[in-house]
Amino acid sequence: MELIWHGHSTWHVTVGETSILIDPFFDNPATSLDPSDVETPDYVLLTHGHADHIAHAGEFDGATAVGTPELTGYVEAEMGVDETIGMNIGGTVELGDAFVSMVRADHTNGINTGYEHDAGVPGGYMISDSKPTQQSDDEATTFYHAGDTGLMTDMREIFGPYYEPDAAALPVGDHYTMGPWQAAVASDWLGVDRVFPMHYNTFPAIEIDISDFEREVKATGSLAEVHVLDGDESFTLE
């Protein structure tokens, strides 16, 4: 599984022959790319409807947008997206070579475009090369994109033991989401081998010293390895 972080919460994930772009927002200081510079993915996953997560959802002709029915309905009607798949918390859909499960996130989800749109509930995604079941699968590779969220016990009680993610991308910028210490606890509860910070240093309210997160992960006793990627940097998850 190939991962590329394009800054903020924008990730490009490749599973087999299937490419997935999550929360496309290229107006952030970590990336040098415009949407036109990015090869059109097969699917665009949207965690929730805030502008810094859906800003460029309509820029990829031919891609299928995936999210809550309310949010996919919005991007179809207002952003010109032709193909959509609506799903919801707890559901798993097969997208080419990937199995994508939507999981809970604790956040808000209105779309403010001069008037309020209901975007359904916010979520995160478990992306795996194998279908999730109750039976543990040591051969599966699973990446968890938490979306915008606070710390929640579902990470300890459900996400870690049942989805068994190998790696997690967690928001660490505080103010609107988890900060460094909460995200560190989340990485411990999830039991991941690798953790990637995201959703930080994009604008003043979420500016942090990323070494605080690295220190907090160590303080939990977690064995997770912290990977602080540069914008547009790739990582192979095996």
Q: Would you kindly provide a written description of the structure presented here, covering whatever features stand out?
A:
This protein has 238 residues and is α/β, with parallel strands linked by helices. Helices cover 19% and strands 29% of the residues. The strands form three sheets. Strands 6-5-4-3-2-1-16 form a seven-stranded mixed β-sheet, covered by helices on one side. Strands 7-8-11-12-13-14-15 form a seven-stranded mixed β-sheet, covered by helices on one side. Helix 3 runs parallel beside helix 4 and helix 4 packs across helix 5. The longest helix has 11 residues. It is globular and about 45 Å long. The chain starts with a strand and ends with a strand.
